[in-house]
TrEMBL record, chains A, B:
The keyword Hydrolase applies. Keywords: Hydrolase. The lineage of its organism: Bacteria, Bacillati, Actinomycetota, Actinomycetes, Kitasatosporales. Pfam families: NUDIX, WHD_NrtR. It comes from Streptomyces monticola. InterPro entries: NUDIX_hydrolase-like_dom_sf (IPR015797), NUDIX_hydrolase_CS (IPR020084), NUDIX_hydrolase_dom (IPR000086), WH-like_DNA-bd_sf (IPR036388), WH_DNA-bd_sf (IPR036390), WHD_NrtR (IPR054105). Residues 14-156 form the Nudix hydrolase domain. The keyword Hydrolase applies. It comes from the Bacteria. This is NUDIX domain-containing protein.
DNA sequence: ACAAAAGTGTTTTAGTTACACCCATGA
DNA sequence: TCATGGGTGTAACTAAAACACTTTTGT
């Protein structure tokens, strides 16, 4: 807009700017996504990604974080990983008016039952595999967000965002296996993770914990590393 | 916006939606970026990324491609690589009004002298290293776009977008060395590129060409591959 | 003849895979 | 005690880095 000599705020039909959220969690070793059910037209009865308008004094990220808190009921939304995926601006994507939407992907550790907070219709976790057709272009948005998360696990420490504050390496490995949909060798996984500086750090206390009935495992915290060297490549490359 | 019961197009102060372009090229083995000089306040005299409003019937990408054609004077803009980088929406980023901007990175092969087309002030190529402070938040946008391009070279065949239709492997290697800012072993580079299916394909004709005074090199075309397996990692990891 | 770049070959090294094996716990 | 998952060790394989070497041009 720098090249415009003079302009008028109201020269164009106004654009609405919204955020749409693809909120992922892991429940029972299944990747799930938070969806709302639309109450009215268009797409009444269809599921959609939660989202909302960006307020006059907000950035898109602030709006996304606010929506995330409203939809999930989580309290410590400040610490959650929120990542801008893409912006969708096709003229016809919302039949009612011109809407430009900034999409975000969020990763939350456990899965609190969502409250249909604020103005939202029912919000529910749904396994990603059983998501049918969504409203608007949300199929595309969800697919883009999913691919982004899958790729990010390879070269960032993002997987820890799915885990509670303290976790075992088995739990962390589960994250990769679930998101990638393929098995990972426990021994090699352990070595790679521990060999990557800043990925995880051991919890000092001698406490131990187990998910099932094996040997108790050591606990770790997320480290400060954002990018991994070398990356943790998934078995099949990028399909 | 799916959760809003009823809404009014004019409920909020209107948002303006714009695109900003970081157009990169390689001139004399230096990475250069296309910048315009602002004529009036705010930031009069400062350089800025070219860009403009998204029209009522356009998508952001369409608007970006249109601006690209206007600013560079290139004719075959349809084939150029254009990539959405991020969307910037901080409330104060333009002092005049609320502007949400979708940033794109573009890679163009040779460097035609830009015409100050359309409503743009003078547009000029400037080496990336000698870019001073830009208007608005364009420093940040340019940095994000640069990092995106650097990273994309690793795992996509994007580098060929900087090259003419037919190029030698030495020229292609120059692209990597210039964008990454570090030397690449010619022998190993050649092997990696040729071992990656779909990255480049040999030009059938026996013609040869040389940039300087060495042995003439074989010519290649860009292959159809978008993602590289394995990735072509830069020496220093990801700084 | 010499420098410079293309292209080929080879050695060395690092990383990954695919296992075998022991340990600690719940049922 | 047996199944289960945690944790360690190790040999085989594979990709990459480093570098020597030949080829073909311009000067």
């Amino acid at each position: 807009m720098e090249c415009v000599q003079g302009y008028d705020k109201y020269a164009y039909e106004p654009f609405a700017v919204t955020v749409d959220l693809a909120v992922f969690t892991l429940r029972e070793d299944v990747l799930q996504v938070l969806l709302v059910e639309r109450g009215q037209e268009p797409y009444a009865g269809r599921r959609a990604l939660p989202g909302g308008f960006v307020g006059p004094e907000e950035s898109a990220e602030t709006a996304a974080r606010r929506e995330l808190a409203e939809e999930t009921g989580l309290l410590d939304v400040a610490g959650l990983h929120l990542e801008q995926v893409r912006t969708y601006s096709e003229p016809g994507r919302d039949p009612r008016m011109r809407v430009v939407s900034v999409a975000y992907a969020a990763l939350v550790p456990d899965a609190p039952q969502p409250r249909g907070g604020g103005d939202a219709a029912r919000a529910d976790w749904l396994p990603l595999v059983s998501v049918g057709r969504l409203a608007f272009d949300h199929d595309r948005i969800l697919a883009d967000a999913h691919e982004r998360v899958r790729a990010k696990l390879e070269y960032t420490g993002l997987a820890t965002a799915f885990c509670p504050p303290e976790f075992t390496l088995g739990e962390l490995r589960q994250v990769y296996e679930t998101v990638w949909g393929s098995a990972v060798d426990p021994a090699n996984f352990r070595r790679k993770v521990l060999a990557t500086p800043g990925f995880v750090e051991p919890v000092s206390g001698p406490p131990r914990r187990t998910g099932g009935r094996g040997k108790p495992a050591a606990l770790f915290r997320a480290g400060g590393a954002t990018t991994l060297h070398p990356p943790l490549l998934r078995p099949e490359g990028r399909p």
